Amino acid sequence: MTTALITGFDPFGGADHNPSWDAAEELAARAADGRLIAQTEHTGLTVDIHRLPVVHEAALETLDAAIAAVAPDVVISLGLAGGTDAVRLERVGLNLRDARIPDNAGAQPVDEPIVDDGAPALFSTLRLKAAHARITAAQIPVQLSLSAGSFVCNEVLYGLLHRLRGGQAEPYDAAAPAPVRGGFVHVPSLREADCPVSLQQAVEAVDLLLAASLDDRPDVEHPGAALH
Ligand code: PCA
């Protein structure tokens, strides 16, 4: 048995939905029917979805509880990046909270660390380059992204990576094997009529990322990074 934990978020900023949760639900529906590409490549794969609050600290507490309940083999968290036009595979979590808008509990931390004395940045341990190649081949708009921002999504990415490393702050060894791979994907506003990515495409992209990441080999050396 292999278990993937997928998270999405509550709506925030006055919106009535969050497409990251739409994507998590569709992924779970495909998994329940055995329709995931990742399931054809990794037999016995099940998907558990959990919804996180858009609240500093509480998001990570909910994630901790989900990890404890599910004991996942891989974790992919999903969030909305409004105004973007591709699936964004986030490479880096920064140890920084700097919120441009209040979270759903009204807090707006500015220039604080997420983990006191934590490493300044942690890298996603998903096989992002391998996934980028496969998602591009499926003709789904996708980008490798060097910043998940400094709001709750970045907090979940950094906090997830910190926890999957056993909560160790230092030293950070990017070459050390990851016992449980984890990372973050930002999706565009999938329900908007002019969005260049459909919900089905976003779900397929996460499916391909899951398939690529359930693999012990190191990521491929593929020059998929953006120039700027
Ligand atoms: N997007 C926000 C937080 C929740 C979400 O879906 C972000 O990018 O930080």
TrEMBL record:
Per the record, the similarity remark reads: Belongs to the peptidase C15 family.
Q: Which organism is it from?
A: Nesterenkonia halobia
InterPro entries reported for this sequence: Peptidase_C15 (IPR000816), Peptidase_C15-like (IPR016125), Peptidase_C15-like_sf (IPR036440), PGPEP1_Cys_AS (IPR033694)
Gene3D superfamilies given in the database record: Peptidase C15, pyroglutamyl peptidase I-like
The alphabetical list of record keywords is: Cytoplasm, Hydrolase, Protease, Thiol protease
- Originating gene: pcp
Which EC number(s) are documented for this chain? 3.4.19.3
Matching entries from Pfam families are given as:
Peptidase_C15
What positions does UniProt annotate as the active site of this protein? 153
Q: Give the protein's recorded name.
A: Pyroglutamyl-peptidase I
Q: Does the keyword Cell inner membrane apply?
A: no
Please list every transmembrane segment annotated in the UniProt record, as residue ranges: none
Specify whether Protease is a keyword of the entry.
yes
What this protein catalyses is: Release of an N-terminal pyroglutamyl group from a polypeptide, the second amino acid generally not being Pro
